[in-house]
Amino acid sequence: MTDTIAHTRAAAAASERSRTESAKEPGGAAGAAAPVADLELDCKGLLCPLPVYKTSQALNRLAIGQTLRVECTDRGSLADFPALARQRSLTLLSASERDGVQVFLLRKEAA
Amino acid sequence: MEIIETAAGSAAIGAATEALDMRPPLRQREGVAGLGASPARRRYGDVRELIASPANPTPLVRLNRVAGEGAEAFLKLEWMNPFGSIKDRTALYLLEGMRERGELAGRELVEATSGNTGIALAALAALAGIPLTVTIPSGVPEEKLVLLRMLGATVMPTPDDLCPVDNPRDGAIALARAVAESPAHRGRYAMPNQYANPDNVRAHYETTGPEIWEQTEGRVRAFVAGYGTCGTITGVGRFLKERDPGIRIVAVEPQQGHRLPGLKNLQEAKAPAILDLSVIDEVVRVDDAPAYAMAKRLFREEGLIVGPSTGAIVQAMASLELETGGVTVAVSPDGGQKYASFYADTLGEEGESR
What we know:
The complex is a heterodimer. Chain A is an alpha+beta fold. Chain A has a single domain (5-108), classed as TusA-like domain (Translation Initiation Factor IF3), CATH 3.30.110.40. In chain A, 32% of the residues lie in helices and 27% in strands. Chain A is built from 3 helices and 5 strands. Chain A has a 5-stranded mixed beta sheet with strand order 1-2-3-5-4. In chain A, strand 4 and strand 5 form a beta hairpin. By secondary structure, chain B is α/β, with parallel strands linked by helices. Chain B folds into 2 domains: 56-82 and 197-343, Rossmann fold (3-Layer(aba) Sandwich), CATH 3.40.50.1100; 87-190, Rossmann fold, CATH 3.40.50.1100. The longest helix of chain B is centred in the middle third of the chain and has 18 residues, at 198-215. Chain B is globular, with a radius of gyration of 20 Å. Classes of the chains: A alpha+beta, B alpha/beta. Chain A binds chain B through residues 1, 44-50, 52-53, 56, 76, 79-80, 83-84, 87, and chain B through 133, 154, 156, 158-159, 161-166, 171, 174-175, 177-179, 181-185.
């Protein structure tokens, strides 16, 4: 299976720039002022529970305090990610939806 | 039944599988030098020819000590299959059916399994040059995960609490389905789906059932197997009921939260679609402790190195009021080697035999 994770801040920043350029108005917390994440995960086109599974795997690669940005298109994610945050010592910094894509920003906390 | 097509030459696992349909079947491969296969001498051209069938049945071994006075009880040793379990039959039928329907060409495989189906699928897929991903529920011993990885399978361990919205015990099935059906994967994965695939039942209707009938010379009066994917109980049950509706078909169900890989408690897990309750006469519930105690007795009193599920199945059989003069057959789905870590937990300090 192929992960489409951008590992570097630079890649994350580039992706963030291109996203915010096409969407000028700040819609929700993940809008123009959205912080750059340490890791990005593209779960678009993946059905539940794959986004949660891949997010769980990706979290193992993050240090405490680092952030993860996940894009999903399965609407089950709207219920799954808050539940995941409660289970896995995460803070769900923001959750938003635009053009059928849900964007979650998570921060890994000390267990 | 034909043998599955295999990679010609040395195509690596994980290589592109587009050419699958052009590969010649190994068994009839031309130009193989040296000794040909001779089943009479137990010499084979390919490990797949060892998978049990009525022409090459797994052994029935009489239980002389644990089954109770006067009982004519036999255990069918499914771990004598080449990949180590009853699932060799299932995996062969699943893949063969998919190949016949054209579902394999150019695709990878994904399946949810507690290990044994995965191990058999992984071996067969490796021989056919097809990459395999398995989703594994929690509670599967490390030994099985290592075997799967040795065979080249991609292993996705599925924690019980993965999907808070779904039934946690079925998380591995949901995950495998998501891999197979996610639009992002563009149909790249084919899922045998042993829980719903009639070929799982057919494997036992065409092989395990007829073997038991032949091996007992038609004297089988009761058959005992576990609730798992329900392929065995449904397939064997259906075959034996057609021979004689009076044959008792007994299903074994573990406790909730059990530690008996391969078995399912149907209160906590969804009943598999292939389960046919009409062929089942009774259900016996067995808790972990008596199942493990019986496994230990099978090791020590019968010399049978069985897996924990066999302990549960034989424990259920021992609790039955069996008719005199009739033969009872119980299934031993797999052997004990893969559960060393589980059994270690039931033993005392080294040097003690308790």
